[in-house]
Structure formats: structure tokens, C-alpha cells
Amino acid sequence: MSVDFSNPSKLVLDEFINTALAATPPELHPFFESFRTLYSRKLWHQLTQKLFEFFAHSASQPYRVDVFERFVRDFEGKLNQLRLVEMGVKVSRDIDNPQVHLAFLTALLSRIDIEKSKDAHVLLVATIARAKLLYGDLEGTRAEMEKAWSVLDTLDDVESGVNAAYYGLAADFYKAKADYAPYYKNSLLYLACLDQEKDMSPEERLLRAHDLGISALLGDTIYNFGELLMHPILGALDGTPHEWIKKLLFTFNEGSIGKFEALAPLFPHEASLKLSENAGPINLPILQENYAFLRQKICLMALIESVFKRSADNRTMSFQTIGEETRLPIDEVEHLVMKALSLKLIRGSIDQVEQTAHITWVQPRVLSREQIGGLSERLKQWVEKLGKVEERIAPEVLASG
């Protein structure tokens, strides 16, 4: 379908509709008849809704760009700017040529008034950034991301779709750079903007769960998996070849070195998060390559668990005890404790002469059923001790009364 209008503002509606009816399959004709009626009556909101229905129809794919450029542009100033951008974003996916794709989005951005619709501006800039990421321009992607965030960060009330566009982009950007901690953070924020069952296919949920699990394990600042362990996205791993990653996450949360060693033989089978320049996955055994880091991380988690299991008045631990709990040689214990202190996983002090560590605080985290049971037992013991103290002091209190 092609109509050459030298001046879109003087578009002849009937000529456009008649040309469309002659060029498109019969199943699309009711849409164009509705466009005629709604346009003539200037029912812009209803026309917007009908356009979304048209763009969602599978048969409309060959005609979407023409309809947007030759019809929608005539009255785009009368539409809600965010809805207009959403249409433009959907249409742009049908443009295969990278230069034309970016030119289409950039031209639309030039027609969006940022002062009137900042959320529309953010959505479009984030879409441009995603296109640049798709075409391998990481620096260009970063620049556009910064522009989008500089506006998004000033907004108090933003539609979930706009937030999802930005955080999904940020997650994919950090995935391309194999930067695990920011990928983990932005990916969880992205999921918070979606209805997992409605907005994601089973394949997308599985990939997201897999990538989140790998990033949690390899993130050098991530030692609290609580938000992920409670998230329904992990359910996507159940019954798949990657289910053991879920078990590994819980193993780290429990600080169980024995379970870690039992799962270690599966490490060579898990590929990297890192993407190649053409956005394809690089097939590297990423967990196996980072075994030394994972081993140190599970030792730190074992230390946290060991401290957590102890009562508050029994947290001065010898290096010998810590070595036994973490399965480390005694000459490596001090370094492990110092690492835990520097990461703020624990608070306390080290006595090098006595070779002891006095722990005053341990980082909170999500507990398994077994850990909750242990905590319940310690509370029971604490209540019993408190009862004995009351029995001992009660006669003195009564006597003084």
C-alpha cells in the first residue's frame, strides 16, 4: 500500500481509505472503515484504541509502517503522546534495516514534546537505546540509557510499561557486559513492572530465571538472595534441566558446603550470561570458570550461617572452629573473616594473638524451613533461661516489696 502525499496535513481521508481497502486483505477492511468513521467524528481516543487493535492483528504486519506514517501522522498531535509512542514502538519492530529503524524512532522523538509527556520521552529514548544495543553499539546504548534515566528519575508517577522498558533495557545492557550485580538489580526491577504470567512467555520466564540465578551466584556484591528466593520467577526452573540452579541458590543461602560440592559437577554445563557483539550467547562454562570465586562465596555464606546459629552470648569463635565450619585451612581463616567484614556481611573484631573472631552482628537474610526451626529452638532456649532468671530474682523482689 503506498500513497504519496506531499503535504500530510492535507491528507484526503477517503483516498487513503480507498487505497488501503484495495491493497489489504478483506479481514482488515473493517478496521479501515472504522478509521474512516472515527476520524470523521474526531473521536481520537476511540481511534487510538482501534489502531492498537489493528497493529495487534497478525495480518496487519506488512501495512503497519505505512498506516503509521501516512495516516497516524496526520493527527498524531491530537493523541495521547504516550499512546502514540507505544504505537510507534510497536510499528518500529517491523523495520528490518538498522538505519531506517533508528531514523524512524529518532524522527518520532523529535515530534514528542518532553515538557508535555516526559514518560513518552523516556519510553522512546529507552527504545532507541534498545535498538542500538541490538545493533551492537554499547556506548551509544549507555548514552541513551543515561538520557532516559535523567528524566525517569525525576518522575513520581510513571506507568509500569515505561518503567519496564527502562529496567528491561538496563538489564539487557548489563547482561551484554556480563556485569552480574547491576543485571540482577535491574532484572528484578523489570519483573516488578510485569505480570509474569500475562506478559512473559514460558521461554522468557525460563531464560530470566536462569540468568537471575547465574547473576546472583556470580555477583561479587550479592550475598543476600532473599528477594530472588521468594520470587515466583524461580518456579520457571522447576522440571527443566536448569532446576539444579534453584537448588544451588538455596544451598548458598544455607551456607551448605557439602551440598555445594555435590552440585559442583554440574557447573561445566552452564553457559555464560555474556553476549557477543551480534547479541548471541557465548557458550562458556561460566560457573566452572568462576569456581574459585564460588568456593570463597560459599565459605562466606557458611561463616554467616555458623554465626547465625549461635546465640548472641556465644559469638566469639576460634579460627580453628571457623576453619572446621568452612572447611578451610586455619591459615586462610583470618582472610575469610576480614573479607566478610569488608563486605559488611558481619560486624565484629579479630584477635590475632588469640586467633579468635568476635562477631556482634550478622547480615539478615531469608531463612529456609530448617533455619526457621533452628531459630525457633534458640528462642525457646532463651525463654527458658529468662524463666530461670525470673525464678531466681522473684523472691528478692517480693521481699523488697
Automatic annotation (TrEMBL):
> Do the record's keywords include Secreted?
no
Task: State the SMART domains in the record.
Answer: PINT
One MF term in the entry's GO annotations:
structural molecule activity
Known InterPro entries for this protein?
A: PCI_dom, PSD13_N, PSMD13, WH_DNA-bd_sf
Lineage: superkingdom? Eukaryota
Which cellular component terms (GO) are annotated to the entry?
Answer: cytosol; nucleus; proteasome regulatory particle, lid subcomplex
So where does this one cross the membrane?
none
Residue ranges occupied by any PCI domain in the UniProt entry = 182-364
**Biological processes per GO annotation:** ubiquitin-dependent protein catabolic process
* Coiled-coil intervals, chain numbering: none
PROSITE patterns linked: PCI (PS50250)
Family according to the record: Belongs to the proteasome subunit S11 family.
Q: What is this protein called?
A: PCI domain-containing protein
Q: Which organism is it from?
A: Amanita muscaria (strain Koide BX008)
Lineage of producing organism? Eukaryota, Fungi, Dikarya, Basidiomycota, Agaricomycotina
